[in-house]
Amino acid sequence: MSDNQRSVTPTVVRLSRYTRTEQNEILGDGDDPFGVAAAGLTWLPKEEHFGIRHGDRLVAHAGLLRLPVAIGDTRSEVVGVGGVAVAPDLQGQGLARLVVTAALDHARTMGPQHALLFCRPPLVPLYQRLGWHLLDEDVLVEQPEARLVTMPLRTMVTPLHDRAQWPSGPVRLFSLPM
Description:
Elements: H1 3-7, E1 12-15, H2 20-27, E2 48-54, E3 57-71, E4 74-86, H3 95-107, E5 114-119, H4 124-129, E6 133-134, E7 139-143, E8 147-150, E9 154-159, E10 171-173
Parallel strand pairs: 4-5, 7-10
Antiparallel strand pairs: 1-2, 2-3, 3-4, 3-10, 5-9, 6-9, 7-8
């Protein structure tokens, strides 16, 4: 990016779709673009998509999905955040902050009190700077063939509304992870 192009603040847009082609546009077409294949999990596609374009190229994305969860004895819902991606050649320029913030602004209109994401350990500091908090509890997620597994990635939450408090207790996602 030239200095002139960097001086223009990128704009986050709501995307009508987000396909493997768009993901490849951001991350390339490698076998494990998110670095989570070793976890051996099946993931849900997101339903709401936000992105940043640089010219005709999609360079950042964040997706959302409303999901059922139990925390202790309380059943509720969370907004799952996933598919967060920034083109490698543009990382470190605040694009993740922009796209995640825009996605969370929309998540606040979806009803649940909290957003939840699953994160590789090296990315934890980034999300902490964005206001996310690590959960100390293991999180159980569903997998094909009625399997229930402990999420091997770090689980992070952030409140979507003032005074929203994450309850204590074991956490179970009643779906595939997002």
